[in-house]
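Hi R.,

As promised on Friday, here is the backbone we talked about, encoded as structure tokens. Could you run it through your design pipeline when you get a chance and send me back a sequence?
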């Protein structure tokens, strides 16, 4: 495989000049949070909430996401329990 002059160690010239803009309209899936919260109000679902304290950040597509600051341990899959 030969390198072209536009190739660099970080990628091709087109990938280096590409600009990312946050746009919820370009999200690959629709935002289902309102429908989920409505199901919770009706008693159909229980929605787990992110406990305080947390940081609120904007996702790639402009949605808000809560990141917990404490107790961030997650179960690691061992293959035995299926999770």
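Update: got your reply. Pasting your designed sequence below so it's all in one thread:
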């Amino acid at each position: 495989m030969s390198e072209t002059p536009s190739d660099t160690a970080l990628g091709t010239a087109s990938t280096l000049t590409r600009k990312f803009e946050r746009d919820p309209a370009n999200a690959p899936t629709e935002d289902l949070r309102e429908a989920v919260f409505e199901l919770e109000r009706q008693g159909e679902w229980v929605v787990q909430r992110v406990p305080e304290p947390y940081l609120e950040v904007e996702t790639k597509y402009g949605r808000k996401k809560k990141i917990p600051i404490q107790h961030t341990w997650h179960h690691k899959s061992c293959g035995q329990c299926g999770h």
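One thing I noticed while checking it: Strands lie at 54-58, 64-68.

Thanks again,
M.
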